[in-house]
User: Fold prolyl oligopeptidase from Luteolibacter soli.
Amino acid sequence: MMIPSLGLAAAIDYPSTRKADVTEELHGTKVPDPYRWLEDDNAAETKSWVAAQNEVTQSFLKTVPHRDEIRKRLADLWNFERTGAPQEYGGKWFFTHNTGLQNQSVLKVSDTLDGEGRLLLDPNTLSADGTVALAHFTPSEDGKLLGYSISRGGSDWNEILVRDVATGKDTGDHLQWVKFSGISWAKDGSGFFYSRYDAPPEGAALTQKNEFQKLCFHKIGTPQSEDQLIYERKDQPKWGFGGGVTEDGKFLVIHVSEGTDPKNRLFYRPVDGDKVIELLADADAEYDFIGNYDSVFYFRTDLDAPRRRVIAIDVTKPERSAWKEIIPQSKDLLQEASMVGGKLVVEYLKDAKSAVTVYDPTGTKVRDVDLPGIGSAAGFHGREKDKQTFYTFTGFTDPGAIYRYDLDSGTSTLWNRPKVGFDGSSYETKQVFATSKDGTKVPLFIVHKKGLTLDGSHRTLLTGYGGFNISITPAFSVGRAVWLERGGVLAVANLRGGGEYGSEWHLAGTRLKKQNVFDDFIAAAEWLVNEKYTSSKKLAIQGGSNGGLLVGACMTQRPDLYGAALPAVGVMDMLRFHKFTIGWGWEPDYGSAENPEEFKALLRYSPYHALKPGTRYPATMVTTADHDDRVVPAHSFKFAARLQECQAKDGPPVLIRIDTSAGHGAGTALSKMIDKTADEWSFLEAVL
Assistant:
């Protein structure tokens, strides 16, 4: 029942896209940019182009025989009750909950840990189409007030509101132009610290550069215009600030970042003082504040330890010679560390799989945590007084569960397991290692039905990320479960540029070494073909955001290697990404077109610029969204327009799917997620 891609391609009448005579000279090189006009998302011509492209894409997808069947199965499988890990404040338990197909999970509060709880906040009532999401929430220490932030239409911009927990009514506090910010309450509940930007000009909220972030304190019951400015740096437009009050209420810890660079600064201020002290001002390493015992601050750091260690600094004696190493670097990556119940709980990654160890505050090992199997563990948060903590555990074919962990006995007890209509026991997961161009061993998880015959006949989905020190670990996905049910093979590559093996692994895939990431992904694809899991005609590649760049770069470098490509919300124009919203913050990973040497490297792999006329590219469906203000949709618009221009006349379809009232991904309404996934799998089944 497959539809031949050639027949489909011949039937597609792509919208005409105007080419403008735009050329920019950079470092002596003339760079054409004929589709720059698509960067103006407010222009009538751009809106008309978007509508025309969506019409063509939907017309194509309507011809796929199994589309309705795929969407129904996705909706059926997603229709399961799920609960988030509980958090205790003031003797009350707060947790998220979804009955199944709610577009957004609701927030509940209960007087007991195992109580059903009462509804405290339902984001689904804030919009007709479920596109207002609960982005973040933090109750006050006494559990009487809830600070929460909402996102509209998928934008990174948040609004912060406050709700009275007892009455379920909002207090009237309303803060705007908040982005990349948490909520940290003062110990007495009088207000909270948060980060904001100045209001952008009218019409520029989704595109203007985000610079000069400010750390502020909002006092409950007062207008935002009266908020106290805690810290800003008018000499440092790219510095971002995150403020958190220590558990003992004595200090405000200020995390100072510059874009996505893992190296950061760490300042603090006594809560009852007004002087900010620059404790770690050199940005010479990554310093993640874990917690404190009075003046002794604990940090997770990669200083002199690419796989990280835990150190302690007495802020009354801040000289480096007085620092103490608490937990030394090991052969595995120290991924996370938390202080709870008088213990240090440390999460490690062993070849991208979780392992957890408990230490006392001196660094003496207490025990290893017995995890349910091979997969990903997360959580272990809490306070000094707690006797228990909670963690989640999941795998590629395991929808996961929430466990209660007794800190004294070391026993894990199942707290909540969702009932999902997917039989994970019918599938197997294995980890193999492909060899990259320079000999580097690249981990690759492969998931498929048991008893798979290696004859090269299976539709295979290869995905990866490879950037920003982010580790890709085993996790359950309803969408991928349906892919597996329909006979597909899933392959997940752990590429350089990610964080799976520490800072050295990350740096080996950044700036002038970014090509290593693409080489790693290409090696994984070749391994799957050579080992006869699939063939090039049956192999699809998928990635989002930085992973969208990955797909765009690999399909332009090796168009012969894949049958299909799904680049989502990708960074496709590597010469102009820094000119929009927070794009400048990615320069630590990508480099900058302003630098002559880095410009040459960026131009070589920039997907938009690497396309060549008359080349037979794989069947491609680019996906983006109109409210993506992280990777602005212009990247995808320009790439798709150029790809349609360059695709060989007898080549397979190249389409773009542009969602509305959606953004980069977080907070997307479930109905939109189901629609998008159904369209992606339908497209792949049609063209592979």
